[in-house]
Design brief:
The protein is α+β, with helices and mostly antiparallel strands. It has nine helices and 17 strands. The protein is about 25% helix and about 30% strand. The protein is elongated and about 120 Å long. The chain starts with a helix and ends with a helix.
Length: about 375
């Protein structure tokens, strides 16, 4: 006894057309002979196709619901032309696009003759350290496709118009039906006459040679937000390549790269640098002018500052990207310059200080004394 078609597709008897279509897609993908090599997969695939063929058409489904399999026994079982099956061919294409073998290779997009969005473009841009910190306006040069002004993007000579391709009737595709013991399969390929556009240009525009676009180099002024870093990506809307057949242009993506600075480094939103002081300045303390990204700032070195001490200048770092009011800090590492040679007057004073400290002096003694100072 033949299995119930609703049971084969795994749907309820009151399932709507969309539920039946989804169930068919799922099962057909699973049991197609090119995918499933298990015993019985081919028979299951034919059974699924038969069930969908009946239940997808309102008239045959109504006869099946009323009279059972006998009511639809006269209907074709898959050897009819796919062009007469409407949605079935479309479903079949969407399921098996990308499969080769019995399908004759991957299928193409269904229709290419409508408006198509232009391609996105990428530009790499280098910034100086302070440009990345504070942002600003930057002028760039790009080369992209723009819609031909002569033909307004149609590709046809002014006064003429493209005509609908007679080979594919404007669909941009041609179909070929192959009959097999398992049913009729359709293969979809790009129309060779119009190359998938659906239109044929008989008199090409002299300016763009029928392409509808021209390569143009132009200058743009873009705004760099404060706080950008290596790898930050800026999107410049509609500055990519022009679209085809009236489609919108793509976007331009600017990738930012920051040049290294001789004095400053960056750690997130903090700026890092070093400052060198003499051993006397470290011992006695001092006030020094140091460089920051904002310019010179006075820094207090406390008496007795040790080597590699990190001093912090708050809110002198990098603005937070997207919130420039919030800034990081400037962190300065203190390096202490210990001399390798001293003049006689300096040595005399240091030896007196060593005696006060009770440190031995002599050859190598000064270095030992200074080393003790900064333990």
């Amino acid at each position: 006894m033949a299995r119930d078609y609703y049971e084969i597709l795994g749907v309820a008897r009151d399932a709507d057309k969309e539920e039946i279509k989804q169930a068919y897609r799922r099962l057909a993908r699973k049991y197609h002979p090119d995918v499933n090599k298990e015993p019985g997969a081919e028979e299951r695939f034919k059974e699924i196709n038969r069930a969908y063929e009946v239940l997808s058409e309102p008239e045959t489904r109504a006869r099946y619901d009323r009279f059972g399999p006998e009511g639809v026994s006269g209907a074709g079982v898959g050897f009819q032309d796919m062009s007469d099956m409407g949605g079935f061919a479309d479903i079949f294409e969407s399921i098996f696009s990308g499969f080769a073998g019995g399908m004759g290779g991957p299928t193409q997009q269904r229709r290419r003759g409508g408006p198509a969005r232009g391609d996105d473009l990428r530009l790499d841009l280098k910034l100086d350290f302070r440009e990345a910190v504070f942002g600003g306006e930057k002028e760039i040069r790009i080369s992209h496709l723009e819609t031909c002004e002569t033909c307004s993007g149609s590709g046809a000579k002014p006064g003429t118009r493209p005509r609908t391709c007679s080979t594919c009737s404007g669909s941009g595709q041609v179909r070929r039906v192959t009959r097999t013991p398992f049913g009729s399969f359709t293969q979809v390929s790009t129309c060779p006459t119009c190359n998938g556009t659906g239109m044929v240009i008989e008199d090409k525009c002299d300016t763009c040679d029928g392409k509808g676009t021209n390569q143009v180099t132009k200058k743009l002024k873009i705004t760099i937000p404060p706080g950008v870093d290596n790898g930050t990506r800026l999107r410049i809307s509609q500055e990519g390549d022009a679209g085809q057949r009236g489609g919108p242009p793509g976007d331009l993506y600017v990738y930012l790269f920051v040049n290294e600075d001789e004095e400053f480094q960056r750690d997130g939103i903090n700026v890092i640098s070093e400052i060198k002081v003499s051993y006397l300045q470290a011992i006695l303390g001092c006030r020094l002018e140091v460089n920051t990204v904002d310019g010179p700032v006075e820094l207090i070195i406390p008496a007795g500052t040790q080597p590699n001490t990190v001093m912090k200048l708050e809110n002198r770092g990098v603005p937070r990207l997207g919130n420039p009011v919030s800034r990081g800090d400037h962190l300065l590492t203190v390096l202490i310059d210990i001399p390798t040679k001293v003049i006689p007057e300096e040595r005399e004073l240091l030896e007196k200080l060593a005696k006060i400290k009770g440190d031995r002096t002599g050859k190598g003694g000064l270095e030992g004394f200074l080393g003790n100072l900064f333990k």
